Structure formats: C-alpha cells, structure tokens
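hey so u asked for the seq, here:
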Amino acid sequence: MEGLRKIQPYIPGEQVDYQRVIKLNTNEHAYLPSPKIKETLATFDLAKLQRYSSVDNQALCRVIAQNEGLEDEWITTANGSDDILALAFQSFFQTKAPIIFPDITYGFYPVWCELYQIPYQLLPLDDQFQWDFTKIPQAIGGLVLTNPNAPTGKTVSKQAIIDLLERFPEQVIIVDEAYQAFNEESVAPLVSKYPNLYVTRTLSKDHALAGLRVGYGIGSPRLTQVIKAVKNSYNPYAVDALAEAVAITALEDRAYYQKVNQQILHTRSWFNEQLTQLGFNTLESHTNFVLTTHPSHKANILYQQLKEHAIYVRYFDTPRLKDYLRISIGTQQEMEQVTTLLRELTQKEI
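ran it, structure tokens below
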C-alpha cells in the first residue's frame, strides 16, 4: 500500500504483572508515591474533568519553577520526559548539520531523528563508557546528553557541560536529567546563564509516578516559547487536570521523596558490594540502576535464568552491551532475593 511510513520504533522494557514478579527492567521507582497523593485523589473535584485542562499547566509550572528558583516562563510541561524530549527534537534541531549523541544512550534518540528526519551522528563512548568530547566535530546541529547516562549509569561533570555550552554557543544542548535525583548535581541552575541549554526531567523515576506520565523542560524564555509553539501545534492540552493535581502534590512533598530516594541509594550501594563478592564487574552508577557483567557467565543466559524465577532485568542484544545486564534497584528485600538467586546461578559449574 502506498504512502505508509516505515520506521523502526523504540522497544521499551517488557511490561509484566508486577504483583507476581520482581520487576527490575524499566527503572521504575522502588517505593510507592507520596501518601499525600491519596488525599489529592480523594478530594479531586470531578467537575474539572468536564472541562479541558489548562493549556500551560500554570499551577504545576509554578511549583516546578519555585523548586528550581526560576520564573514560570522557563518551564514547559508534557506527558513524561519522552514527550518533552520529542518536542525538543522538533523545536531545536531544524538544521542540516547533524546532531550528536553517543552510541550508547537512551534508545529513543535515533528513533526521533528518523521520525522527524533530523540528521545525526553517533559519537562512540570509549572502553570505559565515557564521552570523549574532543572528538565532537565543530560543525554540529546540536547535542543531546543524558546525564547520568542510560543504560551505563555514568555521569558527566558540570564543568564538562559548561565547556560544551561555551564551545557551541549557537547550538542547543539538551541535557536529559531523568535520573538527576540519584546524582550529586544538576545543570538546571545554568539555564539562566547559558541560553543554549535545555534540561528535561520526569516524575517517572524519582517521584514514583511512571504511570502518570508527567515530564517537564527547563530553558530560557526564548527556547520555551519555541517549544510551546510546537506543542500547541498538535496537542495544547498535554498534561491533564488529574495528572497536574497529583504531580503538584508529589513535587511539594520533598521530604518524603528525599527519604525514599536515599533508601534507594543505600540499597544500590549494598547491592554493588554483593555483586562484587559474586564476581561481577559493575559500572559506577549515579542512577537507580546498575550495569553489570560477569566474566564467567553470559548475560543473556543469566537474563533468561532470572526470568524463569520471575525476576525481570534488562538485556540489550547489541554488540557493545551483550555482555551486560541492567538491573534496576528495587526495595532492600527485593534486592536480597535477587542476590540470593544470583549467588546460586553463579556458583553452578560453568
């Protein structure tokens, strides 16, 4: 049939009945959302669902802006960070020069480039899965940097990003901070100094709201005006009224999320120690997951063996990642169960 689009879509981690398994394959939060959300849902005015939601989600943008020390006009909301990133690709990369991102990073980036017909160039990470920024060509259309990176968990220093912003002042640099709460620092405070910086965030990872689909972007009023114009060209009512109410409650309960995110970091540290004792080599992580490999056990076999015991982790069947498993950090009890099973599997005769 004529006129049909051909494209290779992004394939997310397998979605299963999480009540019957230990689900550690999509980097969802280990704990429930803020308990205050129950009251928000119980008292939500149903009449608000009768009308369209706010075009700009002013109330939500105000809370985000206050948390970031900015004005409302620096914030754009969307249906998860996937939506805000897709908007950013459409808004900022109308160029003949290729945009740059690493060969190992979030798998949606090349999909959006194909979908929106944006030229791009992959910059291979080194053997330690680190960027070598000296290899970035001078003629580029923009840069996309996931920090901390996925699926490696590694981070780039704030100073390295500043150097890029100053090296390419006329190109937009997107920093995807989906995992920022598990990292030591954010570059969001730099948006007021560098008008070519755009930062994206999500409530899926650090606020336990993956099922809500709320994300946002932080950038100068100039970039924000462009991205809002693109958004309003096809879907002005991005974040619905119920999602906005829940997101506000979550963002205002900072004490709760600081507590549970610290628990995840504690469990991550404990799990890393267990993996080392079992002979795994694990990359240093600044996220709520780890990327690990075992010198004597194939990752794809371990993946299948874990799955047979109702433990789901992520396996990437690609040349540079085929020896690794990405394991999200669950609760302490869940990670203890994973450790027990991995001990049994790795102590079997090879």
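The first strand starts at residue 22 and ends at 23. The chain is about 35% helix and 15% strand.
lmk if thats what u needed
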